[in-house]
Design a protein that fits this description.
7-stranded antiparallel beta sheet, Jelly Rolls, 12 helices, 39% helix, alpha+beta
Length: 472
């Protein structure tokens, strides 16, 4: 009897469970079917205007995100108010009254040669930035020649793209930024050396400079001990050689000028019977024989004001050889990456200016500030678990260099306190969105387009000052 009751109870429990499951599944299915209907009902209550507003907000939000993403990858932490369009009125030179003698010289450039010397660092050595300034000024006031040129390719470094050099021998090189340089590196801040007593050197224009008219060329060199017997000649040219003399100059430092009866498309040089020891070549100055602008550029990778001061003879030789009416100083980038103090930067600027006052007292000085937005790279190490082991993972991040503005402020302050001309490129480029795509990979240098834009802006600032002076 107990067995029958047990079986009956078991069947009852089984049936109860089955009906419960059936009821649960029945209740679940309608929910799945009615859920979309509820969603549709909710959407149907939403007005068409609300739909448009919602869509508009989403679109605006996505645009903002895209914009800031681009800004973070191409520009540097733009400060408030920097994103407005560039105002050309901001691109001007401060204290143009100080430049009046130079601006008047430009006015008579059709009957005279106006010499400009541009001194700087790696922003100048590649040639794009100063080359754009020179090209525009020469189109406006006349082309007196290519100016200073140096065989950078024979020295194993980069240089302007509008010329090259070839030689029958190989050379070693030295620069003002090299440690323990015990000899004069010449007006360009760089020299090539060879122990050979007989060799040739050829300057070859390229690109837009290929049809360069060379009517006169002056070469600078040190023939070494007993160098008085050195013969330097170029076919068809009238040759004049004289020493460069100033306090502290070496007795063997010379310059030879070649004058041609007709224009040459390249400069062929032959050196024979050079003195004992190393023969050092310092570059050449190319002239067209016409009036106008002669633009001489001296730029050395890594250079600071202190490097030019430590090699004072280079500064003196630049002033004696190029006889500039305007000197443009474009330094400060490397000071920002090896920054010690504003006082140290100012002291080096004062030393450079003192040399200019002594050896080119009539030259006018124009200072430019380094670019806004240059970056420094920081490497951080983090221990991460990779598989079953922990490894050190290095990450490289790029952040704005906080010392750039310190150098910029020191240059601005010095110019304003002493009455020198100033082109504050740091400030000018901040509002110019065209520089967003002008940076090189290191975010320290510009690409070609960026340097061309920088050169165009400085030319426009000089032109504005010139036209303003004419009105007055």
């Amino acid at each position: 009897m107990n067995l029958k009751w047990q079986r009956s109870i078991s069947w009852c429990l089984f049936l109860f469970i089955c009906f419960s499951c059936f009821d649960l599944s029945a209740n679940t299915k309608p929910k799945k079917q009615t859920r979309p209907a509820q969603t549709k009902t909710t959407k149907s209550k939403t007005t068409s205007s609300a739909k448009k507003t919602s869509t508009k907000k989403k679109t605006t939000s996505s645009k903002k995100k895209t914009y800031h993403k681009a800004a973070n990858t191409k520009t540097v932490n733009a400060a408030p108010g920097i994103d407005e369009l560039y105002d050309p009125a901001d691109n001007s030179i401060e204290n143009t009254a100080y430049l009046l003698p130079f601006l008047k010289a430009l006015q008579s450039a059709d009957s005279n040669v106006v010499s400009i010397l541009h001194i700087g660092d790696s922003h100048l050595q590649a040639g794009n930035y100063p080359g754009t300034i020179a090209q525009n000024l020469q189109q406006m006031f006349g082309d007196a020649g290519r100016g200073f040129v140096f065989p950078y390719n024979l020295a194993g470094t980069n240089g302007p793209h509008d010329y090259t050099w070839s030689s029958s021998t190989s050379f070693s090189s030295a620069r003002i930024v090299d440690r323990n340089v015990s000899f004069d590196v010449g007006p360009g801040g760089i020299a090539i050396s060879s122990p050979q007593q007989n060799f040739s050197l050829t300057y070859i224009p390229k690109g837009n400079n290929v049809n360069s008219n060379i009517r006169e060329a002056t070469v600078y060199y040190d023939a070494g001990a007993n160098g008085a017997n050195t013969t330097v000649f170029s076919s068809g040219a009238v040759t004049t050689t004289k020493p460069i003399e100033f306090e502290g100059a070496t007795g063997t430092w010379q310059q030879t000028t070649f004058s041609y009866p007709v224009s040459q498309d390249r400069l062929n040089l032959n050196f024979a019977n050079t003195g004992v020891g190393q023969f050092r070549f310092y570059g050449a100055s190319i002239k067209s024989g016409r009036n106008g602008i002669l633009y001489n550029t001296v730029g050395i990778n890594g250079a600071q004001f202190l490097h030019y001061n430590a090699n004072k003879n280079s500064l003196i030789e630049q002033l004696i050889c190029f006889q500039p009416q305007l000197i443009i100083y474009s330094l400060g980038t490397n000071e920002a990456y090896g920054f010690t103090s504003g006082e140290a930067v100012r002291a080096e600027i004062e030393n450079v200016v003192s040399v200019a006052k002594q050896y080119a007292p009539n030259a006018k000085l124009l200072f430019t500030t380094p670019p806004y937005g240059m970056r420094i790279r920081r490497t951080s190490s983090v221990r991460k678990k990779v598989g079953k082991k922990y490894k050190t993972v290095k990450t490289v991040s790029s952040i704005p260099n906080p010392n750039v503005v310190k150098v910029q402020q020191e240059i601005v302050k010095y110019c304003r306190e002493n009455g020198y001309a100033l082109w504050d490129f740091y400030h000018i480029m901040r509002g110019d969105k065209r520089f967003n795509t002008g940076w090189g990979a290191d975010h320290i240098h510009f690409n070609v387009a960026g340097y061309n834009l920088q050169g165009q802006l400085l030319y426009e600032a000089i032109r504005k000052a010139y036209l303003s002076q004419q009105k007055n």
